[in-house]
Amino acid sequence: MAEQRRNKRFELKLPLELVKSGSERISEMCETKNVSSCGVLFRTDTPMKAGQPLEYLITLPGYKGAEVRLRCMGKVIRHASDVEIAATLERYEFVREA
Q: 59: which strand partners?
């Protein structure tokens, strides 16, 4: 079967913190499985429904050991399995550490 995704996925295992799921504030540390310019696949034990809004932070490795954090907003697209969630990346902003 030919690849039908519009955006290339990168197999990156990066720290991801779930911040908000729908209207519920949460703080759960997870890890990405893969990332693209419009979405992310990650593992979590938090139950989520397709279509629900989501806010999450992805930590990127930075220059000389300094971390770069992205605050991302999107929504749950689907469950890839019982613990894997596919979500969109609709908006993002860089977060500066104090």
A: 69
Q: Does 8 reside within a domain? A: no
- 81: in domain: yes
Q: What is the reported pLDDT for 1? A: 43
**SS3 per residue for the chain:** CCCCCCCCCECCCCEEEEEEECCEEEEEEEEEEEEECCEEEEECCCCCCCCCEEEEEEEECCHHHCCEEEEEEEEEEEECCCCEEEEECCEEEEECCC
Q: How many domains does the chain fold into?
A: 1
- Is 72 within a domain? yes
Instruction: Provide the domain limits for residue 57.
Output: 15-95
Q: pTM score, two decimals?
A: 0.86
